[in-house]
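Protein: ABM domain-containing protein
Species: Desertihabitans brevis
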Amino acid sequence: MIIMTIRTQVRPEHAAEVESAVGGFFAALRREELAGIRYTSCRLADGITYLTLLELADGVENPLPTLPEFAVFQDGIRRWAAAPPVAERWSVVARYEG
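Structure follows.
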């Protein structure tokens, strides 16, 4: 399993555009019903920092680059971000799901 987080801080005047783009991107995820992927987008309390969690099951190639909506979202982030996004890859040590 691959787990990544991406932390992005956007300029305040672009927060509404980010929210709209996230909505369009998630509509594409639901439409495509991609298997073996979990994707979560969160806005932190400051209103301008977003944290994304991407989980890929073992053996699953990241399908996001194949979605046109993802390309639109990525292009937007380049314009809206106050600083470059920070991506981190995680290794699962243990996991419990109740």
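Remarks: The helical segments are 15-32, 68-80.
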